[in-house]
Amino acid sequence: MGNFGACRDVSILSVAPCGPEGAAHGCYLLELENPGLGPAAAGQFVMVRPERFGQNPIWPRPFSICRLTTRTLTLFVQACGRGTDILCGLAAGDKAALWGPLGQGFALEPEIPTVMLAGGVGIAPFVEYAATHPAPSNLSLVFGHRQPLSCYPFAAMAELVGRAEAFCEKTPDDLPVFIERLDAVVAGAASGLILACGPRPFLLTVARLARKYSARAQVSLENRMACGVGGCLGCVEKNALGAYVQTCTEGPVFWVEELALAEDA
Amino acid sequence: MGNFGACRDVSILSVAPCGPEGAAHGCYLLELENPGLGPAAAGQFVMVRPERFGQNPIWPRPFSICRLTTRTLTLFVQACGRGTDILCGLAAGDKAALWGPLGQGFALEPEIPTVMLAGGVGIAPFVEYAATHPAPSNLSLVFGHRQPLSCYPFAAMAELVGRAEAFCEKTPDDLPVFIERLDAVVAGAASGLILACGPRPFLLTVARLARKYSARAQVSLENRMACGVGGCLGCVEKNALGAYVQTCTEGPVFWVEELALAEDA
Amino acid sequence: MSADVSVRLAGLALKNPVMTASGTFGYGLEFAPYGDLRSLGGIVVKGLSLKPRLGNPMPRIAETPCGMLNAIGLQNCGVEKFLRDKLPLLPHSETPIVANLYACDADEFAELAGVLSGAAGVAALEVNISCPNVKAGGIAFGQDPAMAGRLAEAVKKRAGSKPVWVKLSPNVTDIVEIARAAVLGGADALTCINTLTGMAVDIRSRKPRLANVIGGLSGPAIKPVALRCVWQVCRAVSAPVIAVGGISSAEDVLEFILVGAHAVQIGTANFMRPDMAFRIAERLPGLMEELGIESLDSYRGSLSS
Amino acid sequence: MSADVSVRLAGLALKNPVMTASGTFGYGLEFAPYGDLRSLGGIVVKGLSLKPRLGNPMPRIAETPCGMLNAIGLQNCGVEKFLRDKLPLLPHSETPIVANLYACDADEFAELAGVLSGAAGVAALEVNISCPNVKAGGIAFGQDPAMAGRLAEAVKKRAGSKPVWVKLSPNVTDIVEIARAAVLGGADALTCINTLTGMAVDIRSRKPRLANVIGGLSGPAIKPVALRCVWQVCRAVSAPVIAVGGISSAEDVLEFILVGAHAVQIGTANFMRPDMAFRIAERLPGLMEELGIESLDSYRGSLSS
Ligand SMILES: Cc1cc2nc3c(=O)[nH]c(=O)nc-3n(C[C@H](O)[C@H](O)[C@H](O)COP(=O)(O)OP(=O)(O)OC[C@H]3O[C@@H](n4cnc5c(N)ncnc54)[C@H](O)[C@@H]3O)c2cc1C
Ligand SMILES: Cc1cc2nc3c(=O)[nH]c(=O)nc-3n(C[C@H](O)[C@H](O)[C@H](O)COP(=O)(O)OP(=O)(O)OC[C@H]3O[C@@H](n4cnc5c(N)ncnc54)[C@H](O)[C@@H]3O)c2cc1C
Ligand SMILES: Cc1cc2nc3c(=O)[nH]c(=O)nc-3n(C[C@H](O)[C@H](O)[C@H](O)COP(=O)(O)O)c2cc1C
Ligand SMILES: Cc1cc2nc3c(=O)[nH]c(=O)nc-3n(C[C@H](O)[C@H](O)[C@H](O)COP(=O)(O)O)c2cc1C
Ligand code: FES
Ligand code: FES
To answer: What's the number of domains chain B is made of?
Structure first.
């Protein structure tokens, strides 16, 4: 088969648990061949479909670009379902179809103090963001997590950026405490740039706080996607005008005020 | 989950190409844990469904017992489709559901000169037959094959049995020559016992020759099976009375005269 | 404190909602080596006709993506032989054994019901008005509301005290219409769904993969269609619904209870592994506890929208 | 000597039979980075209505075994914007671009056809009388033969010289009846099939997986149903049939040609990888050579039984 353009068949180079406890908590780093992906902005994503999927599951899976070098693409993947379980069980040499970089990445304002708010696997795009930021000392990271900290690519980031803190949510009681902390962080960063990636409830909280403190904030959505290229209209989110916009092409990163974020979708 | 009886979850112990050229020709030996399968007659089979199948393919796959010891079950598998490709790509430690021994094996008449006629993977049950036969010197083997001989478990059998010959079918022109040879073999063995396993056209030829020379002959069918236990009525063959009999429970081994073998099924 | 998985279904008390589907579990006995038949909520046996039937020529089955096609053509040993040779060996006093009825017209259905009405070990009659694999009757019955009602009535009249279930075809424009007609005709419960009509071909030999050309599609592939049918029928009729179509896990069972089913049947999944139905029945209470579901009655039909 | 993959289809000359299915290939342009749009047999764009439509609330899609459900609800930019902003960017002089029409009644369909009849870059009109995901019209149109005939007629009258294709629903008792009505009404070709109506639920949240509750099932799971429908329709009508439903390989394409289809559409498989349709179109001639098939015309409908 010829090469048809921007969708390529690549080899998996390695699949490794992230940190000593990664396997137990389903946290993996996947390294793939970089088949020559164009320049990427942190926050953009790729679609991956291992051969192993066969016809089931049917859809590819979207993942943030966690680290892109000229030779390799690294994804940080949490095994949490059929597709990610298969992905994290792959071995070097297995094949996957890969296309990207897709969508819109995070705003980059090198001189502006920028706070990265990450929840769980939502840390993935910020690894690339920090690694490619011209002035990482202007960055700070607030990271909420449930699995042990070593299961995430946190330590290396903490060394790179100006400030990094992690908050472990062990019980439901910890949640209000974390939200309080986020409130303080957003309040303090309202004049800078706020970027958030994580589970939907986390993003809703960030959006609410951004409005509360009139902060400039972007959120990265993780809507269900079938195609990733704007072809199915499945991944939409309601925007501020009441229209449905494709999160795969117009997102996944949006300014908070662009969207009519609903609690329930 | 408890143990519900005769269907068990076992580990794959090893998957290895058969002979130096096995991988190139899709011929593999699979070694599985023997979870305590009851005593088996050569010609009986097992159903295997690797976890890896997920929901697609939906059916398990039937394989002849190629070798059964107290600790291990060996299958000889030709990768020729979705299911067998997956099976032959498994690694030690992968899990599969396994049930059997199923169906009716070959007749065993230790004192009677017995000719085993095998075509391709149809050699599998004869490995067990020869290994468990009380007087293997009464056995002879005629083996028709397409892949290199080293891709099949032929050499070890040849040492064990009284006589063994192999016939390589390289081009379509070789077929009539092989059939001529089979004619001579069946003619010469008409007073003994003839057992055959292989592709359907091969079995039809054997059945025709057995009738021609009034030889006592058994054939082992490879009809498509969904359940392997008599539950679906999918695997039937027309018998001499015009009724459809389940090949998984009443076969796969039948006396030639029990069946109304049709050219076309 | 274990979750309550018992079910009352049109006069029957089931230990649990997990039954087996007709044609996928033989006469039950074939699966006895793989689990305790008494642990099942019920066993529906292979479709029975008045006289033994040969069934269709081979090949009769073909694999499809996440499913399969079959055109068995209702091969069976006939009702007499079933009652004489098979039923006595089944644990009918501990688990409801349900007869699945196939016939070519209303009179024959009535006669068959009459024969079965007297069989002590038979707990209910399931009327198959939806088999796509036979020339006479079969699916056409289940596609015409008037006919469906008439057959339900004919069977009910001769069924004595046995509950009558009517098994519906999804190959219709409006399954609710057929469901209503069957209930009006006297059905005590409805089984939803039989197979979807499908086909497979071999591009090399240029032949259909089934000698019968068309067959019935079953397995996980059809679960979304079954779920939709069960949901529609549950909202429209008050008779209890027994769900079938692509169920292969305890989670799937709860999906069907959630949209309103009283009980379920495991079909094609029995071929994935012969202990499947047993495993699902065993797993269900634990899953319910994990999800905080106290009883099926409390969960049934609780879908919000 | 390469196999002949060209097709004549109701007045159109296609390079090859591999088109893309409405709603699964955006407006075509989204897939331009993944292959040469001119290498396709045709491109059917997302369903168009007279006015832009918002579509259904989210979530709109759910994965199912070997398939998916969608309830997009025909979100589209409206026919005007399509003609103004999208069509000029498509290679319409090299590859037929087909408009897929959705409307709420016959008058609206006719008006829409009128608008499109004048658009030079539009090669044919595909009338969607079978969408399960909208309240008004949609699937009900495709379930009533009289209505199907009326809509075909209304569109045909205003379509000018453009061929009219009518897209059929599999959610009917008898698809042949609808097919005949559409052809009598004036359809030049029939597209078979749209999605099967299905549903999925979440046992934890107790909610439907689609905000619209029900949706359309597509993908390899439904291929056996599509194949059966195409076979039935091809035997019953002389109008050419465009097959769609679960096609994901060149082998699948030949299956549908074998039962009588003139051309095919790739739908859900475009989501498996965005170069899927291009790959299938490229692979087809090679596969035909391997199988000794000289032309599609010689292979079409050659199923033996
Ligand atoms: C732009 C984008 C970037 C992402 N980046 C990462 C990343 O860097 N690392 C990472 O681990 N995960 C990331 N995700 C989420 C990841 O795609 C999902 O976890 C994955 O698709 C789930 O697949 P599964 O088969 O394992 O789960 P499933 O078995 O399909 O479902 C498990 C759960 O995940 C939800 N889900 C299923 N598919 C998706 C989907 N496509 N998007 C979101 N939720 C889904 C289901 O509703 C269900 O609740 C990203 C998602 C998006 C949209
Ligand atoms: C009793 C019995 C014993 C067998 N023993 C062996 C053995 O020892 N070693 C071995 O390699 N093979 C054996 N087979 C055949 C083996 O089961 C099939 O090769 C296998 O099921 C094909 O699966 P697949 O998914 O690779 O092929 P598929 O992709 O499903 O199909 C490839 C081809 O195989 C045919 N086929 C599919 N399923 C079956 C089936 N269940 N039985 C027969 N043909 C089928 C199809 O029609 C098709 O032509 C045996 C079969 C039976 C019934
Ligand atoms: C091999 C096979 C045989 C079947 N035979 C019958 C039958 O005799 N009577 C009947 O009512 N349904 C029969 N069915 C339909 C099943 O009972 C069930 O309704 C259908 O397969 C859908 O469920 P599933 O997807 O779980 O298999 C048969 C199905 C299969 C696969
Ligand atoms: C996301 C999605 C959107 C669709 N939108 C339309 C549409 O707008 N108009 C239409 O006629 N069919 C639409 N369809 C149906 C497809 O064109 C096709 O008929 C169906 O999906 C079956 O083919 P498949 O299995 O190859 O996907 C849509 C299908 C999907 C999956
Ligand atoms: S995922 Fe298909 S349009 Fe966004
Ligand atoms: S394989 Fe099911 S009855 Fe033989």
So the answer is: 2
Q: What is the ipTM of this complex?
A: 0.96
D217 interfacial to chain C (CB closer than 8 Å): yes
Q: A264 to chain C: nearest residue by CA? A: C305
Give the separation between CA C100 and CA D53, rounded to whole angstroms. Answer: 48
Domain limit, last residue, from B102, B133, B163: B102
Q: What is the CATH number of the domain that holds B31?
A: 2.40.30.10
Can you point out the beta strands (E) in D90-147?
Answer: 97-101, 124-128
CB B227 within 8 A of CB B234: yes
Model confidence pLDDT, tens digit, residues C129-182: 876 655 555 667 788 999 999 999 999 999 999 999 999 999 999 999 999 999
Say which residues have a Cβ less than 8 Å from residue C137's Cβ, sequence separation at least 6: C102, C103, C104, C105, C129, C131
- Read off the pLDDT band of D130 (50, 70, 90): confident
Which CATH number does the domain housing residue B125 bear? 3.40.50.80
Amino acid (one-letter) located at B109: E
**Which chain D residues contact residue A227 at CB under 8 A?**
24, 270-271, 274
d(CA C155, CA C48): 14
Is B1 within a domain? no
Centre a 10 Å sphere on the Cβ of residue B212 and count the other Cβ atoms it contains: 12
In a domain, D232, yes or no: yes
The pLDDT value recorded for residue A1 is 39
Q: How many distinct structural domains can be found in chain D?
A: 1
Co-location of A119 and A250 in the same domain: yes
**Ligand 5 atom with minimal separation from the A230 CA:** 3
Distance in angstroms (rounded) separating the CA atoms of residues B92 and B70: 19
Which chains would you list as touching B if contact means 3+ CB atom pairs under 8 Å?
A, C, D
Residues of C in contact with B5 (CB under 8 A): 33-35, 275
> Mean pLDDT throughout D218-241?
98
Rounded-to-integer distance, Cα A111 and Cα A27, Å: 33
Residues 6+ apart with CB under 8 A from D284: D3, D5, D16, D17, D18, D250, D253, D254
Residues of D in contact with A229 (CB under 8 A): 26, 30-31, 33-34, 274
Q: Which atom of ligand 1 is nearest to the CA of A66?
A: 8
What pTM was estimated for this model as a whole?
0.97
| CATH code of the domain containing C159 | 3.20.20.70
Tell me: do A139 and A211 sit in the same domain. Answer: yes
Do A142 and A25 reside in the same domain of the chain? no
- Which residues between 58 and 117 in chain B have a beta carbon less than 8 angstroms from any beta carbon of chain A? 82
Judge if A37 and A160 occupy the same domain: no
pLDDT (0 to 100) of residue A265: 39
Q: Are residues B33 and B134 in the same domain?
A: no
Beta bridge partners of A49: A97
Residue ranges making up the domain that contains C225 = 7-55+73-197+218-299
